[in-house]
Design goal:
Blueprint: E1 2-8, E2 14-20, H1 32-51, E3 57-61, E4 66-70, H2 77-97, E5 102-108
Parallel strand pairs: 1-5
Antiparallel strand pairs: 1-2, 2-4, 3-4
Helix pairs in contact: 1-2
């Protein structure tokens, strides 16, 4: 199962996210759930880095299937929109394929 944890302050400001694990929907290379989650996560990181003025700190461990992303400075409007899109996307995947494969957690920090 993959877990996506999205970190927000009490006021709703995004401070980062973690994605960990492999969905286990199908064999490696054929797992559409894992591929969808990966595409959303990687696109969010790349888009915030390339299309906004926001600072992104990223740590990856491909073997463990983990990516951690932190925003040391408050995201601008475009960055917030991209994070809202990630949140929507992973929640829709969880609804469609079930919590057996993806758990989405919003954690207050």
């Amino acid at each position: 199962m993959t877990s996506v944890v999205i970190y927000q302050t009490k006021e709703g400001t995004f401070t980062g996210f973690d994605a960990l694990g492999h969905a286990g929907f199908a064999d490696a290379g054929e797992d559409i759930v894992c591929a969808a989650i990966s595409a959303l996560v990687i696109n969010t990181v790349n888009s915030i880095e390339k299309l906004t003025d926001s600072t992104v700190l990223v740590q990856e461990d491909q073997k463990a299937g983990k990516i951690s992303c932190r925003f040391p400075v408050k995201l601008n409007g475009d960055g917030v929109l991209l994070m809202r899109s990630l949140h929507l996307g992973v929640n829709e995947i969880a609804k469609r394929y079930g919590k057996k494969y993806l758990k989405v957690i919003t954690k207050e920090v």
